[in-house]
């Protein structure tokens, strides 16, 4: 049975501060230039009864999506509105789900398990939850939905391989890049461009599929394994890759050109999300800990004011056009929590 609950998020100091801080977002100067004197505002939040909170995405309206482990019922989903209100939901009815993205209109996509298999779902802003799975497949997931209602996901074809699918105008269409052994769609933008990865005998590669179904495959130069994590409104894709000695992050522009980068003094940098200005956020390892960074479209990397204060590990999940970063941090209480960083 689907269930929903609405609460106010909590933040340091007092429980209603999260709602008040929603009005404190400061739009950064052109190029997202960091002011050395400016201090970002951090808000922490957890759904009720959460033992571990995971944030997966933030949209341009400041709505955050994620999932959490409820100490009583299992894994549930949540949506945190810009005013700090948290609404929880469970499409599985038995606490066994996760979500992976949020659309520009606030629709959340993910998957859940029950006794008959795994299924993709979309929770719409109205609270309605619709299940999607490619016809005849026992297992599937949904990774994204755009403003036009086009749904993208993956399914098990019964051939021990995964394939991509698009649901649009009431019908399903299957797709795979040429030569793909396994297709893993990751994201879709409002123009209908889909990005993801696929595997073949030579490794793991990236692809983009245009709204007309044209598929272009690619890898950053020197890549042996390519990962995809985000796409923005113009079709720029971000992720990271391995080249045999390092794991840099990359941005693939719509014209196919690549920009690669590493946080200074690191051998590996991941990318989690990209906004419409081209700013990227993600994480990097330093010793045994993980920290966050933001790379602006002009190439400046800031890794000094992204971590949640005093947290041993911070994992940014996304950045919106107001330069708000949302993600997860590990607390000193050995639990993970959600955070919103605003300027």
Q: How is the topology of this model organized?
A:
Layout: E1 4-8, H1 17-21, E2 41-45, E3 50-58, E4 64-70, E5 74-80, E6 85-89, E7 97-102, E8 108-114, E9 117-123, E10 129-132, E11 140-145, E12 151-156, E13 162-168, E14 171-175, E15 182-188, E16 194-200, E17 203-209, E18 215-218, E19 225-231, E20 237-242, E21 249-252, E22 258-261, E23 273-274, E24 280-286, E25 289-295, E26 301-302, E27 313-319, E28 325-330, E29 336-342
Antiparallel strand pairs: 1-6, 2-29, 3-4, 4-5, 5-6, 7-8, 8-9, 9-10, 11-12, 12-13, 13-14, 15-16, 16-17, 17-18, 19-20, 20-21, 21-22, 23-24, 24-25, 25-26, 27-28, 28-29
Explain this structure to me?
The strands form 7 sheets. Strands 1-6-5-4-3 form a 5-stranded antiparallel sheet, with no helix packed on it. Strands 2-29-28-27 form a 4-stranded antiparallel sheet. Strands 7-8-9-10 form a 4-stranded antiparallel sheet, with no helix packed on it. The chain is mainly β. The termini are far apart. It is built from 1 helix and 29 strands.
Distance between the termini: 40 Å
Task: Report the helical percentage.
Answer: under 10%
Widest beta sheet: strand line-up: 1-6-5-4-3
User: Which ranges are low-confidence, i.e. pLDDT below 50, for 5 or more consecutive residues?
Assistant: 7-37
Number of helices: 1
Taking all Cα atoms into account, the compactness measure Rg is: 19 Å
SSE series: EHEEEEEEEEEEEEEEEEEEEEEEEEEEEE
Secondary structure tally: strands: 29
Shape: globular
**What is the mean predicted local confidence, pLDDT?**
90
Largest sheet: number of strands, sense, barrel closure: 5 strands, antiparallel
The fraction of residues in strands falls at over 45%
Query: Which structural category do the helix and sheet elements fall into?
Result: mainly beta
């Amino acid at each position: 049975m689907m269930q929903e609950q609405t609460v106010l998020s909590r933040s340091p100091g007092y429980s209603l501060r999260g709602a008040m801080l929603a009005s404190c977002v400061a739009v950064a100067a052109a190029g997202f230039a960091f002011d050395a004197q400016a201090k970002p505002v951090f808000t922490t939040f957890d759904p009720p009864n959460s033992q571990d909170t995971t944030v997966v995405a933030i949209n341009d309206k400041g709505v955050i999506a994620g999932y959490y482990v409820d100490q009583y019922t299992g894994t549930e989903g949540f949506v945190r509105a810009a005013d700090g209100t948290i609404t929880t939901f469970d499409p599985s009815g038995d606490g066994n789900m996760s979500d992976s993205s949020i659309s520009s209109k606030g629709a959340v996509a993910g998957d859940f398990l029950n006794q008959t298999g795994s299924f993709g779902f979309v929770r719409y802003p109205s609270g309605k939850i619709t299940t999607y799975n490619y016809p005849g497949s026992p297992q599937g997931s949904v990774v994204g939905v755009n403003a036009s209602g086009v749904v993208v996901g993956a399914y098990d074809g019964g051939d021990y391989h995964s394939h991509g699918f698009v649901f649009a105008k009431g019908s399903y269409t299957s797709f795979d890049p040429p030569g793909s052994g396994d297709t893993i769609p990751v994201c879709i933008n409002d123009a209908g461009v889909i990005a993801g990865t696929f595997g073949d005998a030579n490794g793991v590669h990236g692809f983009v599929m245009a709204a007309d179904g044209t598929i272009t495959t690619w890898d950053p130069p020197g890549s042996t394994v390519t990962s995809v994590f985000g796409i923005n409104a113009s079709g720029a894709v971000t992720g990271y890759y391995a080249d045999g000695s390092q794991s840099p992050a990359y941005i693939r522009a719509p014209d196919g050109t690549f920009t690669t980068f590493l946080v200074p003094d690191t051998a590996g940098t991941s990318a989690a999300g990209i906004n419409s200005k081209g700013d990227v956020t993600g994480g990097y390892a330093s010793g045994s800990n993980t920290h966050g960074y933001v790379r602006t479209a002009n190439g400046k990397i800031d890794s000094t004011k992204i971590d949640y204060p005093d947290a041993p590990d911070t994992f940014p999940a996304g950045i919106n056009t107001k330069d708000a970063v949302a993600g997860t941090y590990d607390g000193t209480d050995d639990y993970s929590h959600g955070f919103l960083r605003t300027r």
